[in-house]
Amino acid sequence: MALTAEGVAQLAQQEGVDGLQKRLPDPDFDVNALRSADGKTALHHAAAICSAGAIQALHDFGSDLEAADELGQKPLHIACRRDRMETVTALLDLGADIDARDTQGQTAVHLVAKAGRARLVPFLLARGADLEARDEDAETPLHMAARGGVLESLRALKDAGADLEARDKDGETPLHMAARSNKVAALEVLVSLEADLEALDKDGESALHLAARFDKPEAAVALHELGADLHASDPDGLRPLHTAARCGSVGTLSEMGTDLQIQDHKGQTAMHIAARTGMAEAVRLLQEVGAVLDVEDTAGCTSMHLAARHGEATVMRVLLNAGVSIHTTDAMGETPLHHAAR
C-alpha cells in the first residue's frame, strides 16, 4: 500500500514516535516531503484529526511546524479551524508561529473570527496573537467577522479590544463590511458597540452608500433605523439615493423619506442618474413616488437630455410617456435631440 501523508498521521496517532521510527526506518525518508494532493503534510492531517499525541510524535520525528499547504495554511491554521483547544495548545507549546499567514495573509485569528470559533479568540490573544493583524487586503479579524455576520466573534473580538474603526485597503470599516454583505444582525451589534455609523471609506462613502450600491435593502433599512444619515454626501455630492440610482435599486431608499430632489455637485438628482445609466425601472419608480422629472442640472440638462446623450432609448420613452418635453433646451441652447445626434 502506498504511503500517504494521512496514513503517516494515523500511524503517529496510533503508535507514536516509536511506531514511526520502526515502520519508517529509512534515514532518507523526509516526512515533510510527503504531501497529499492539496499540499498537506502528515502534521496538517494530525491537526485535522485533532490528535495532540500525533502532533507531538510527528514533531519528534522531524515534522515542520510551519509547513504550508497549497493555500499557505500551516498546521496551526487547520487546528484552529477545527476548534480543538488541545491541538492548538500542543502546536503552540511546540513553537508554532501564532501569527503565521496563509496565501491571503490571514492569521489564525482571522480564521477563527470568520469561522465563529469565538472561544479561541481570547485564548490566542492570551498567547500573544496580534488582534489587529492585517491580511493582503488590510482586513483585520473584526472585518472578517463583520462580513460573515459572525456575532460571537464580533463580541469576543470587541471584548478583547479590537478597533471598531479599523480600515482596510479601501478605507472600509467593519460596519461597511456588514452593510455590503447585508448582515443586519452584525450591523446592530456593531452599532450597539458604538461603531461610527457615518464613517467614510476612501471614496467618501458611508455604510449606507454601500448598502445602496450593492442593492442590500435589508441593510439599508437597518442602518436607517439605527440612525444613519439618509443624505450623507461623498466628495462628489452623491447621496445614498444617487448611488442606488446608478444600479437601479432606488425602491427602499425612496420609501424612507429621503429627499428625491436632492442634487449632487453637478446639480443632478437621482432621476438624472437613473436616466443616464439606463435604469428605466428606477425612472418609473422615482416618478411614481413623486420625483420631479425635468429638474435641470448645472448645465441646464434634464433627465431627457442625459438619456438622449447616452443613447438610453427605453428611458426616453418612459420620460416621453410621463410628459417630459423633448424640446427643452439646456444652457447651450441644445435640445435632447441635439444630444442624441452627437
Automatic annotation (TrEMBL):
| Lineage top rank: taxon | Eukaryota
Q: What is this protein called?
A: Uncharacterized protein
* Pfam families in the cross-refs: Ank, Ank_2
Which regions does the record annotate with the repeat ANK? 38-70, 71-103, 104-136, 137-169, 170-202, 203-235, 266-298, 299-331
Secretion signal: which residues? none
Taxonomic lineage of the native organism: Eukaryota, Viridiplantae, Chlorophyta, Pyramimonadophyceae, Pyramimonadales
Source organism (scientific name): Cymbomonas tetramitiformis
Q: What keywords sit in the KW lines?
A: ANK repeat, Repeat
Under InterPro entries, the record lists: Ankyrin_rpt, Ankyrin_rpt-contain_sf, Multifunctional_ANK_Repeat
